[in-house]
Amino acid sequence: MGETQENTSQLPEVIEAKAVWAVLKEKFGDAVSEFDENPTMPFFEVLEPERWLDIALFMRDSPKLRFTYMACLSGVDYPEEKKLGIVCNLESLGELGHKIAVKVRCEREGGVISSVARVWKTAEWHEREAFDMYGMTFSNHPDLRRILCPEDWEGYPLRKDYEVQETYHGIKVPE
Amino acid sequence: MGLLDAKISKHNVLVTSVDNVMNWARLSSLWPMGFGLACCAIEMMATNASNYDLERFGIFPRASPRQSDLMIVAGTVTMKMAERVVRLYEQMPEPRYVLSMGSCSNCGGPYWKHGYHVLKGVDRIIPVDVYVPGCPPRPESLIGGLMKIQELIRMEQIGISRAEALKKLEEKSMDPSQLIQEARKSAKAS
């Protein structure tokens, strides 16, 4: 076990991400989880989701971090834990060059995550997509509507227990 | 088929039936509606462009359903698009023809099982005359489908329904396996 973990933790991306995490851990304490040295996507989780917006603003504006770019924001379903979540891939593009992923989770039914659309403009449509596919809401989002499915579509298609509706406007949907 | 082949040189008089003339006019200037839904549309555009040159058959995409008599459903029809396809179809003047191009439009294609958002065949919402298989079909296949539409038009008569014309077309159809075998043999020999 030790050998592979040593190898991954020596990767320059992982070392940089760990330094980022250490800054955030110092500033936000228990709101930030332990660091995960995943070699393809080093990440940490926000354990107190109500502080996610503060953390996002700090990550963008702190001179030590300067996360100028949100590469992606994806949704995740955790049916066993009755949770939904998002994964944000952040990068300091053209400035410090480091990358990290942040995970935030909320309740499966009626869960709310604060929107970071005003921190990174990219998040606006990505949060709409996560809402469209998984059904969590993003508080203070400027325009939270479905983005891909029709407005009157029933259910959230990428949830693990999703069952497609029988008809849509009188047209048969399933095979 | 073509009036020029008949070499009318002496009296400039031609005797034929109204059906023949009308069918000839219709099938020689099929105007498809210019819209594509997915990767099949790329293949359709390639067929329209100079290499395959659909204009030699009088086939030329129009920008409005009101000027079109053929709808080539080229690509994946999503549930969101389905209602729009119906509306476009309804805006086309009769007689109108529908060619379903590619697996998605024929039956949902790769989205058959898990594609919650895809209509499993455009024939669930509008009547389809000719299906062209492929994913996406090559320009040759699309041209084959268009020839089939032309054959269908040739079968039409005043007073018979589309269904009857399709039946006549089916009676005239032949089994291509013989031709395929021969083509394979000659390809091997060369």
Task: Write a short abstract of this structure.
The complex is a heterodimer of chains A (175) and B (190). Helix content of chain A is 27%, strand content 24%.
Oligomeric form: heterodimer
Which regions of chain A have little confidence, pLDDT < 50, spanning 5+ residues?
none
Strand order of the largest sheet of chain B: 1-2-3
Cα distance, first to last residue of chain A? 47 Å
Q: What is the H-and-E element order of chain A?
A: HHEHEEEEHEEE
Helical segment count of chain B: 7
CATH architecture of the domain at 31-158 in chain B: 3-Layer(aba) Sandwich
Gyration radius of chain B, rounded: 18 Å
What is the CATH architecture assignment of chain A?
A: 2-Layer Sandwich
Radius of gyration of chain A: 18 Å
Shape of chain A: elongated
Helical proportion of chain B, percent range: 40-55%
- Largest beta sheet: strand ordering of chain A: 1-4-3-2
CATH topology call of the domain at 31-158 in chain B: Rossmann fold
The CATH topology of chain A: Beta Polymerase, domain 2
Describe the structure.
The complex is a heterodimer of chains A (175) and B (190). Chain A is built from four helices and eight strands, in the order ααβαββββαβββ. By secondary structure, chain A is an alpha/beta fold. Chain A has a single domain (2-172), classed as Beta Polymerase, domain 2, CATH 3.30.460. In chain A, a hairpin with a 4-residue loop joins strand 2 (69-78) and strand 3 (83-91). The model of chain A has no long low-confidence stretch (mean pLDDT 89). Chain B has a domain at 31-158: Rossmann fold (3-Layer(aba) Sandwich), CATH 3.40.50.12280. Chain B has seven helices and three strands, in the order H-H-E-H-E-H-E-H-H-H. Chain B has helices at residues 18-28, 39-48, 79-91, 103-107, 139-155, 162-172, 177-189; strands at 70-74, 97-101, 130-132. In chain B, strands 1-2-3 form a three-stranded parallel sheet. The radius of gyration of chain B is 18 Å and the shape is globular. Classes of the chains: A alpha/beta (175), B mainly alpha (190). Chains A and B meet through strand 8 of A and helix 3 of B.
